[in-house]
Design brief:
By secondary structure, the chain is α+β, with helices and mostly antiparallel strands. It contains 4 helices and 3 strands; from the N terminus they run E-E-E-H-H-H-H. It folds into 2 domains: 31 residues, no CATH class; 54 residues, no CATH class.
């Protein structure tokens, strides 16, 4: 339950109910990546999880025209990362 404290969005501390006394809550970091960057980051993680090397995953994650599922399935089925990269591109 919120009891008080700074009301503006830029405040670094909020006070919440805690065992009978007000205490500072952890600051909330509202910074987010731009939407396109979030998508690229998610694609990169999925490609790494599938088995791509970091450089190949970075290159493919940035290419939004490449079908992620097709690219991931190539490596999951045994295709080496570099070869799968060339096929996907």
């Amino acid at each position: 339950m919120y009891l008080g404290g700074a009301l503006d969005q830029n405040a670094s501390k909020r006070y919440v109910w805690g065992g009978g006394e007000a205490m500072a809550a952890a600051p909330v970091d509202d910074r987010r990546l731009p939407e396109g960057d979030e998508v690229r980051h998610w694609r990169f993680e999925e490609l790494l999880r599938a088995g791509y090397t970091i450089p190949d995953a970075l290159e493919l994650a940035d290419r939004l025209d490449v079908d992620l599922h097709l690219a991931a399935n190539l490596v999951r089925r045994g295709c080496p990362s570099g070869t799968a990269l060339r096929i996907a591109l």
